[in-house]
Amino acid sequence: MRVATYNVENLFSRVRAMATDDPAKSKEVLEDVMELQRLIEQPTYSVADKTKMLKLLKKQRALGDTGPIFLQETRKRLVWKGKIVAEGPDNWVGWIEWRRTLIENPAIQNTGRIVSEIKGDVLCMIEVESRPVLRRFNDTVLEAFAYPHAMLIDGNDERGIDVGLLSRFPVTDMRSHVDDPDPDTGKPVFSRDCAEFKIDLPGNKNLWILCNHFKSRGYGNKADNDRKRRRQTERVSAILNRFNLSDTWVIVAGDFNELPSSNSLKPLLQCPGLRNVFEKLPAGEDRWTHRDDATPSKNNQIDYLLVSDSLWPHLQQVGIERRGIWSKTKKVRDKYPPLSTVTGDSNAASDHAAVWAEFTL
Q1: Would you state the pLDDT for residue 19?
Q2: On the CB side of 38, how many CA atoms lie within 13 Å of its CA?
Q3: Among the four 26, 71, 76, 107, which has the fewest Cβ within 10 Å?
């Protein structure tokens, strides 16, 4: 069984009308939506208004599932059996909604190539907008390598930067910690979530994987960020008290956003019964997992797989997949060549490497 964690750097959707190489087509959709909105807001709908509304709705396929927009009706109806039946905005409640789609650009295609290269059986996905986006990535980008199970629980980040899971084995239980309070502020302690997934494995075994994305180190005040991250790792360590780590197979995975030397990670990295898979790497081997850390002064991980004592004896091999990164210096690119399709920042799969660990069960 191979388990991996990968920060895919903002796997987001976009308004479908804008996800096109034809600006004239986008402009036409925008103009039609503006006209529809104007007509919908009329105090009363004349025969001419109704005729034009219906024409525009049909033109933009807003009454079906394939158009760039759709008609959202929450109370009563604007359209019924192919006709405008409301006499004005007071007779129904609804609006025109933009349909969204995954941006399938070269960078996303490279992300898919890296996921396929990892060959993970269980993959913690960091920075994914929603489950529909994760499913579309799985179905249309991964294609032949698609996973039968794709799960994601909405987290606390208002931008939709969430953590999810792709698995070849059934996911039979999920637990969210979005509401776990910060002891200092009473507000949610997790910037995103510590999402727990229980996975059923062959032989009546199961694995718990806790997917995390801790407080960023790149924005705001460093001391405040470190305190926030410290409280997050303290909370994950407390969550682990629910498990007997000498008996239960548990993995804590994700982007911890700091190097192992950081005081903010100590509650987790020094948690009894939990071990960092990088202990298996040969001495002297490069350990960086984010392109900004590919320097002699840093050269260490911010992406982690921590495994319980009970799972540790089954650990056979550990790897770092860096071929999706466009490194800042030629020296690093020469040492760790990217995929041939990664030719610059704009089409890099991510600024993170994937970390994987292989177990014999």
Answers
A1: 67
A2: 9
A3: 76
What's the rounded mean pLDDT across residues 199-213?
97
Q: Give CA angle at 343 (339, 346), nearest 5°.
A: 115
Domains identified in the chain and CATH numbers: 2-13+103-359 (3.60.10.10), 20-101 (no CATH)
- Residue tagged 């920060």 (tokens): 7
* DSSP code, position 218: S
What's the rounded Cα separation, in Å, for the pair 106 and 118?
18
Among candidate residues 210, 178, 206, the one with its CA nearest the CA of residue 197: 210
Q: With the CA atoms of 238, 241, 242 and 244 taken in that order, what torsion angle do they form, in degrees rounded to the nearest 10?
A: 150
Q: What residue ranges in the chain does DSSP mark as E strands?
A: 2-11, 13-15, 69-75, 79-80, 83-84, 93-98, 100-102, 122-128, 149-152, 162-167, 171-175, 194-201, 205-213, 249-255, 274-276, 303-308, 315-321, 354-359
* Residues forming beta bridges with residue 29, ordered by sequence position: none
Q: Which of 322, 324, 319 is nearest to 109 (CA)?
A: 324
3-state secondary structure of 140: helix
| Whether 16 contacts 99, CB under 8 Å | yes
Write out the two tokens for 332.
């690093």
Secondary structure (DSSP) of 193-206: -EEEEEEEETTTEE
For residues 179 and 331, give the distance between their C-alpha atoms in angstroms, rounded to a whole number: 45
Length of the chain equals 361
Q: What are phi and psi of 164, to 5 degrees?
A: -140, -170
> Would you tell me how many other CB atoms lie within 10 Å of the CB of residue 345?
12
| DSSP secondary structure of 273-322 | TEEEGGGGSPTT-----BGGG-STTT---SEEEEEETTTGGGEEEEEEE-
Residue pair 32/45 in contact by the 8 Å Cβ criterion? no
pTM over 0.90: no
Which has the minimum average pLDDT: 31-40, 52-61, 214-223, 286-295? 214-223
